[in-house]
Amino acid sequence: MNRDTYIAIGRRVLTSEARALASLSEALDDSFAAAVELILAAEGRVIVSGMGKSGHVARKIAATFASTGTPAHFVHPAEASHGDLGMLARGDVCLVLSNSGETPELADIVAHTRRFAIPLIGVAGRADSTLLRQSDVALVLPPADEACPMGLAPTTSTTMTLALGDALAVALMEHRQFTPEAFRAFHPGGKLGARLSKVGDLMHGGADLPLVPLGTPMAEALLTMSGKSFGVVGVTDADGRLAGIVTDGDLRRNMAGLLERNVDQVMTRAPLTIGPDDLAEKALGVMNGRKITCLFVVGAEGRPQGILHIHDCLRAGIA
């Protein structure tokens, strides 16, 4: 085989699985809505289970649910038969995956849900399978050939099951109006956590703020500006609101007689600001777009609460 052959095989597989996903989308019906409503009505958790490749998919679905506002965990069917059935309780809802719907290792979990009236959502490729006949809500995968040349290795079927899990998770997210702030609470580390950091988490405040009142002589303003090392000084009015800022650019534009002036005569009025609850990624976009290095952080009444430097965003991993 040569590289062109490998590429052709890859495209064939992806095209085949894309067709299967399109069929799955068209096949969604009231059963999908019923599954969403059953999960929303549950007072406990979603218990997701499956064996083999379906088990790997089940782990991922449980993780996606848990990280997007739907409490969930994975229970291995073999371990369930040796004590882990205690992880399923009244108030939970069980989501069980099996392409054939006849996986023998799932029998104890299915029987446990029937015995203790735990709602069961089944996902399988056969509507007449044991799993789907026992389920309160049956989600049937449409017929589709596996992508492997022998038609045996779970490929297309696992792709459809995984996508169906994502569809459930997103439907639940949107119903619950899951916010970026809530998402960050479940993803505090890594790139996602950095991207969802708030300005208030990164800003400098208190004694670090470079502020002077209106009427301050430029000589004093320059001392504050250089002492705080942000390359800018904020100017506040009598009510403590931000009236303007003095930047390096303002200094260059007013070099003639600079030290004989006060900040009112030099400052840029109505400067760009950001709120403490805004995402730091938004602040970085503003700074990059306007080619500036700092933003004052102001509250609802326009009073400065902090200052954010572009380096604060870069140190936090926001780029």
UniProtKB/TrEMBL annotation:
GO terms for molecular function: arabinose-5-phosphate isomerase activity; carbohydrate derivative binding; metal ion binding. It comes from the Bacteria. Pfam families: CBS (PF00571), SIS (PF01380). GO terms for biological process: carbohydrate derivative metabolic process; carbohydrate metabolic process. Residues 203-265, 267-319 form the CBS domain. Residues 35-178 form the SIS domain. Gene3D superfamilies: CBS-domain (3.10.580.10), Glucose-6-phosphate isomerase like protein, domain 1 (3.40.50.10490). Signal peptide: none annotated. Keywords: CBS domain, Isomerase, Metal-binding, Repeat, Zinc. The keyword Transport does not apply. SMART domains: CBS. The keyword Repeat applies. The record marks 53, 105, 146, 187 as: Catalytically relevant. Zn(2+) binds at residue 76. NCBIfam families: kpsF. Belongs to the SIS family. GutQ/KpsF subfamily. This is KpsF/GutQ family sugar-phosphate isomerase. It comes from Rhodovulum strictum. The lineage of its organism: Bacteria, Pseudomonadati, Pseudomonadota, Alphaproteobacteria, Rhodobacterales.
